[in-house]
Amino acid sequence: MTTLPRPRRMLTATTAVGLGAVGALALAGCAGPGAAGASADAPRVVATTTQVGDFARELAGDEAEVTQLLSPGQSAHGFDPSAAQLLALSDADALVVNGAGLESWLDDAVEASGFDGVLIDASTGIELYGTDDHEHETDDSGHDHEHDDESSSEHESEDPAADHDGHDHGDGNPHIWTDPELAEHMVENIAHGLAEVPGIDADAVEANETAYLEQLDALDEWIAENVEQVPVADRLLVTNHDAFTYFVDAYDITFVGSIIPSFDDNAEPSAAEIDDLVAKIRDTGVKAVFSEASISPKAAETIGAESGATVYSGPDALYGDSLGAAGSDGESYLGSQVHNARLILESWGVEPSPLPAALQG
Fold first, then answer.
1. For the chain, what is the largest distance between any 2 Cα atoms, rounded to a whole number of angstroms?
2. Pair 16, 119: CB distance under 8 Å
3. Can you tell me the distance from the alpha carbon of 28 to that of 128, in angstroms, rounded to the nearest whole number?
């Protein structure tokens, strides 16, 4: 089978904003594991979400101690950092954020903590979809519109606050990590930022970046090859909320609708919205409704009962806004994406092919 080239989402400049480095990190109140091999005097890196926390740990290796503010299964949309977490942030050498407007509480947390380290926005240079971009354009080959592979040169700002404000993407969809190719750009942004942190060996970070990007490439190719087994007309998806727009775009999937028609998983669907989704499921012949691991499956179960679609919940729920707990399929970004792809493929009647060697072990 010939694998067609993946489309590329439009990119602009990639950058990390360098600020002055500060003292040791107080870990009280921060969730997530640190780097096991990091020395006691290693730079302290705080990451906001589970995804960027995982990326940062993969890249930092033994060069820094990485902790994350959000716990597995916790949504970033309604997060409120504790006093202990603000204290930890105040002493961090670097802060890694998803960006794209996901952490609505971020500016207040940075101001309240007095954070004065290196701020790394993983979303820098990634063009976001807006609220009306659930449908995506296709070219004559049936694949998504071409994306620009090129990025501009890095730049730094002498006014960190102004530069951070410049990365406010407004109402764009912040769930960029759901497309492995965009996750690669997030990883590149984080790697470039970590290389600027005093005390971190930039060469070691670059080596870790190269190895991890190879795994992300393998993941992307594996998903694409398996999805291509399904006719485009049969690639239908219903999820719990609007977290998978970039995944849908990446693999030419038709997004029929979501239980919570919002980027925010804390929103509540109206009765009319539920009725509309049930009608769409019946009209299109969708066979599955996917709940998410970090969201109650009750609404999904109601819609499944009314539409006749199979509901994927519990251990078969998708990992959307958050990675899973240690020991679960979704404890890492790679694991979460393999888990999600397998379930979606199985709902279409496809037995996924074995994982490539880069993703085994």
1. 60
2. yes
3. 34
Can you tell me the distance from the alpha carbon of 113 to that of 123, in angstroms, rounded to the nearest whole number?
Answer: 22
Last residue of a domain, one of 223, 251, 277: 223
Contact call for residues 239 and 311 (beta carbons, < 8 A): no
Q: Which amino acid is residue 128, in one-letter code?
A: L
Distance in angstroms (rounded) separating the CA atoms of residues 287 and 299: 16
225, 353 in Cβ contact below 8 A? yes
Q: Residue 51 belongs to what domain range? A: 44-223
Domain count, the chain: 2
Q: How does pLDDT run across 138-195, given as a tens digit for each residue?
A: 333 333 433 333 333 333 333 333 333 333 435 799 999 999 999 999 999 999 999 9
**Cα separation, 326 vs 331, whole angstroms:** 5
* Domain containing residue 348: CATH number: 3.40.50.1980
State how far Cα 152 lies from the chain centre. Answer: 23
pTM reported for the whole predicted model: 0.82
Confirm whether 192 is domain-assigned: yes
Sign, Cα dihedral of 270, 272, 275, 277: negative
Residues 31, 322: Cα–Cα separation, whole Å: 13
d(CA 223, CA 183): 14
